[in-house]
Amino acid sequence: MSASNLTRAQRWLALSVLTASLLVIAMDMTILNIALPEMAGELRPTADQQLWIVDIYSLVLAGLLVSWAAVADRWGRKRMLLLGYGIFALASLLVLLADSAEQVIAIRALLGVGGAMIMPTTLSLIRVLFTDPAERATALSVWAAVAGLGVAIGPLIGGLLLEHFSWHAAFLVNVPLMLLGVVAGAFLLPESRVANPGPWDALAAALSLVGMVAVVWAVKEFGKQSSLAVPEAWVAALIGLAALGWFVARCLRRDHPLLDLRLFRSRLFSAGMLAAFSTMFAMMAAFLLIAQWLQLIDGASPIEAGVRLIPTALAGALASVAAPPLARLIGARSVLAGGLALAGVGMLILGGKAENLDLTVVLIALGLVGAGTGSLAIGSAMIMSGSPEEKAGNAGALEETSYELGGTLGVAILGSVSALIYRQSLADAPASAAMDPAVAEQAQESLGGAFAIAEKLGLPELAAAAGEAFNQSLQATGLVGGAIMLVVAAGVFALTPRGTDVSQASH
């Protein structure tokens, strides 16, 4: 079965398989946040092990995206996708045998292997399935909507499962969905591979793996320490940057590179990539802080916090679906740049109202952010339109890498700035000056820690000061993130060629 022989109904059924699997992957990024406390209570991981449980998935995912996309181009994208489904299901099932933190870390790493096979392959198959640019733009808008919904409903699904089952359910929910994907994909998806991909470049694959893992790990370490004085992170960063520099030089020199970086010569492609990277950079740290605000300051339970974030996801989903027809009316670059600007305004509202923040303001601001980021569906369409079909795997890998790296850098850099502002603001508060220095230092580590100390020692003034310090850190993150989004919106508008129409074939 080839993509050219599929009927319209078969193409959309195939898309349903791809988006359903993406929903599982996206949910898995956030569902663990809910399961982690119960898991930690049973397995008793050390602080380092708990961090590895969270981080190993994204490290493995980031490291393997490029290599698996290149393998799929040669071996077959359908085969790679179905193998990824199988590995994801197997890893999720293995949690029944896990009775230590080390085993859970290994399972999360295996999930990262499967996820790296699935994520870029879904994008490249959409590029192959939908040769008509207008259909492709709509398909990519559905893809973007499902990805956003998955991230948002992950905590909600996790909370509902944990009310009735153990933490294992957060993993086991993947199994039937992935097995269904294997069966449906075998019948509905066409096989696709590049005709003349050139020889496999093992050295480039190794360089991409080492470079991405080292850089992402280093950035995470800087973020956790909220300091640049982390020698081991500097060593990893230098190793990673050297490996990536060698990788880039090697890819640019070869006739058949593992990853064709010449795609960036296309202004359409570059504009879409800039939008994807910068949006994740600006938003991930803000969303992390908002989740803490909802639970610690507004008093929501994890499930209630998840419910309150659903309108944001729905706004993003609706905007994603509406973006292609709107782009046909006013132009792709106006929709993409306008959406980024709208998200920037939402973040500026968060920053401007942080000192007197209430739930209504949060929901309005997040609604604007969600609606604005729906325009990233146009960014995906531009990325795919700006790359030939035989480079669909490369384009998918680069787009997913931009999301992953943008989010990681955003949390590390903006999160570190936020932590420094919180720490300094609380240190300057009169409540801290009146406390034992060791206790005050513990309170400055995190908002949750400060609230716990305030409750234990009966210090309501400490809780009030910590809440005020956190609001100041949220204000700075919102203002900086919003400013970044507005600058990127202007850059994307300037970079995107006038008259760009993602519903028409690019020339």
What's a concise summary of this model?
The protein is an all-alpha fold and 507 residues long. Helix content is 81%, strand content 0%.
Shape: globular
CATH superfamily of the largest domain: MFS general substrate transporter like domains
Give a short account of the largest sheet.
Answer: none
Extended strand count: 0
Query: Can you tell me the CATH topology of the largest domain?
Result: Growth Hormone, Chain: A
Assign a percent range to the helix content. Answer: over 70%
Radius of gyration: 23 Å
- Binned strand content: under 5%
- Identify low-pLDDT runs: none
* CATH 2nd-level architecture of the largest domain: Up-down Bundle
CATH class of the largest domain: Mainly Alpha
Mean pLDDT comes to 83
**Helix vs. strand class:** mainly alpha
- The succession of helices and strands, N to C, reads HHHHHHHHHHHHHHHHHHH
Figure out the total of helices.
19
The N- to C-terminal Cα distance equals 28 Å
Number of domains: 3
